[in-house]
From TrEMBL:
Organism the protein comes from: Allocoprobacillus halotolerans
Superkingdom, natural source: Bacteria
Domain NAD-dependent epimerase/dehydratase: 6-266
PANTHER family reported in the protein's UniProt record: EPIMERASE-RELATED
Stated name of the protein: NAD-dependent epimerase/dehydratase family protein
Keywords assigned by UniProt, alphabetized: NAD
Pfam families, sorted: Epimerase
InterPro entries: Epimerase_deHydtase, NAD(P)-bd_dom_sf
Amino acid sequence: MNGKTILVTGAAGFIGSNLCKRLLNETNATVVGIDNVNDYYGVNIKKYRLHELNGYDHFVFYKEDISNKEFMHSLFEKYAFDVVVNLAAQAGVRYSISNPDAYIQSNLIGFYNILEECRHSYDGGKQGVQHLVYASSSSVYGSNKKIPYSTDDKVDNPVSLYAATKKSNELMAHAYSKLYNIPSTGLRFFTVYGPAGRPDMAYFGFTNKLKNNETIKIFNYGNCQRDFTYIDDIVEGIVRVMQKAPDKATGEDGLPVPPYKVYNIGNNQPENLLEFVDILQQELINAGVLPEDYDFEAHKELVPMQPGDVPVTYADTTPLEEDFGFKPSTSLRDGLRAFAKWYKEFYK
């Protein structure tokens, strides 16, 4: 990555900010970040993440939206990006049920703009973008009964608009890889958590409610299983993938064989939601967020499944391991301990 110019969209987001920090700490790459800093969840935590990045002299930030075609064109004109990592997206399954416009604008139009700029980066014989890496999601598997989820599985039955937009991203990237020989890699993330994470995620929301002496709702009567993946493992996976684009090749028809890959990044070890909440409670007590005599049983309620949710997520990470020698391995307890310590400090 040394000497490269890298675009990271969604740079104020959970994964984006951590990726930027890793690149800035370990390389001399110029990292250009873009984020619209919307208020889908509280902007204070986004400002906190950006504040951590602003001290680096080879980091440039733009508060803009990837759906702004003119701005994206001017950005690609100004910087000859070597690698583009698209993490900007309207996230969240349940929010997509009540606010579909946001998903079309960011996840479809925004991603289309990025694909178009990658395509035109080769104009005039220029070297162009060497690798487009983009966020997909475990949500694309929908209510797939076969587990663990493999990237070879058919994923034609999304159960939320969010999942549909992420599957669309994979299809759009494939078309552009085929037509314009753009090396692209999609990453299906599985329930990412950790310090300075997204407040709309269950573990963060549970923590806020328990701290405020409110009752938490545990869906599907606690029978959900999630392949919780710690943020450092996600970033490690992205960095490894960034450095090796899919190979370009010519098919028998004389046309490009699309330089296109999709990988799961998950912990390959689904955890029961009730056990997860129990470990979270223990670590919140250890960190001093909750008192030692906290009555956890009095603050939980088991409720049915909600629309758009799935009962289990479980990643088959074999291809990632085979191609990059990497498999996420941070234990749930270690990850939640790091989150609880950060939470105590941040809200002190």
